[in-house]
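Folding problem:
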Amino acid sequence: MAKTKSRRLITDEVWQVLEEALLEAKHSRAGAPGKLSDRDFLEALLYLNRVGAPWRDIPADLGYWHAVYMGFRRWEARGVWHRLWSNLQTDRFAQARDLFMDSTTIRAHHHAAGAPKKTDPTRLWDALG
């Protein structure tokens, strides 16, 4: 039976470079290790960016959606994303930098497409006042 080609984005070569930048950004290995490896965690996040899916639609082979979501929130609260991005700006991590996406590649949710805001209507006599 033929093996299907993996749709994962992080190659072994890129992971060797990215893992070093990530370990520097995380600062500490304190706490219990997660069931999901850092590489699989990043693959799940890249999948979400690539397809524009909600958290709950992460495929099971990329991890449980709530674990991925909570990991993302914890890294944000601890500043890991900011430090990782800063690390990737240096020349020694240039190969890994090409993997990440900027906001121009991410589609907005259809609710963010310009619906009018729910505000009180302006009264003419208040504006003249």
Observations:
- The helical segments are 12-26, 38-51, 65-78, 80-88, 94-97, 124-128.
- Residues 111 and 118 are 14 Å apart (CA to CA).
- The chain is about 45% helix and 0% strand.
